[in-house]
Known about the structure:
The protein is of the alpha/beta class. The chain has two domains: 2-203, 3-Layer(aba) Sandwich (Rossmann fold); 237-429, Rossmann fold, CATH 3.40.50.720. The chain has helices spanning 2-6, 21-29, 41-48, 99-111, 128-141, 179-190, 203-234, 238-245, 267-277, 284-309, 338-347, 361-368, 390-393, 397-401; strands at 11-15, 34-37, 67-70, 79-84, 117-120, 150-153, 172-176, 197-199, 318-322, 351-355, 382-385, 410-413, 427-429. The strands form two sheets. An eight-stranded mixed β-sheet has the order 3-2-1-4-5-6-7-8, sandwiched between helices. Strands 10-9-11-12-13 form a five-stranded parallel β-sheet, with helices on one face. Helix 5 (128-141) links the parallel strand 5 (117-120) and strand 6 (150-153). The radius of gyration is 24 Å and the shape is elongated.
Amino acid sequence: MYSQLLNKEKKLAVIGLGYVGLPIALAFAKKLSVIGFDINAERVALMQQHIDPSKELERAAFEGCDIQFTHKLEDLRQAHFFVVAVPTPIDEYNIPNLRPLLSAADTVGKVLKVGDYVVFESTVYPGSTEEDCLPILEHLSGLELGKDFKIGYSPERINPGDKERTIDKIVKVVSGSDAEALENIAQTYELIISAGVHRASSIKVAEAAKIIENTQRDVNIALMNELSLIFEKMGINTHEVLQAAGTKWNFLKFSPGLVGGHCIGVDPYYLTHKAQKLGYKPEVILSGRRINDSIAEHVALRTVQLLLKQHKTPQASKVLVLGITFKENVADIRNSKVADIVRSLREFETQVDVCDPHADSEEVLHEYGFSLQPQIGENYDAIIVAVPHQAYKELSINDLRKLACAQNPILMDLKSLYHGQEKQDFVVWSL
Length: 431
């Protein structure tokens, strides 16, 4: 398979062209003949014009690529190596939603042929590839794993917004259904990953490795958030505590903050869901999730409390929220915890203006029910700097003061961007 792909005798297809799929498809397309498939015809039309709908890649990323973008199932019949990179979200009850993944498996199963390979990149719980996806592939194709086709799992390791650790510079974990599959899959990914690949001993090991990467980060951030809650009651600045503790060589440098997005705030629930189905109730992981999910409401309540302390009623107050995306310097608003802050404040009938230089206002309106302000206003009783975009890092506390009201304004500096600057007459709070 590898040599046939390399000689362009066979095509590679990427199913799902979002934040993960499109960069992978373009990277492969610099070496191989690629079909980029997405069910969203509007997104496909933009990519055909060399526009990344996710606003992560420049037009130059499309240059020199041997790629056909399509939303038509029939076009996939030309491919023999399939990479599935669709989202794996959770529902409102924090239960894994496998519908996009199973739908993608359904799509591939309809075009699967003898000798084909299918590699899944979507984040799942250990066992999902073989227990959930494989039966669909075999049923719809009428083929048998091992005898007729092979599968593998190679978890995505793309960091949106990171211009230094790009896809080629991050070691890729790969796995296969047998030794031959593993080697062909590893060699294929080695074409685009200069950092090299790690050959996992099994598909389940690779799935588990991915799920604990983000679970580990989630638990560590939860610890920082809990410490922040404790230190606030003690009258200690958490940022200063972490600076001091960070002077020890083996201190892990995590910081408190909102935990949203499509990875850290979601992936742990896949692991806990599977664990509970096996009869084990995770304590540490779920505790961390509860803490991190509570921080947005805590920020909103502290804002209201500080307004009241300054003799301002929430109903008559005006609050500016800077940033709505789930992390800095990206356009991605999925699972934004800033939206929870806005929702909580509006329950107090507070006027809330939300601005973000990266997010799309129509997308925010569709997802969360409110629009972004095209321009920042003035006379705000409180300013919440929620996302540390570079544009906000370049602002000084004096710049923020010009946006605030005359009497006792409040600055909610969640990530301590302005720590150490002269406070002016701001009442400053941070995690």
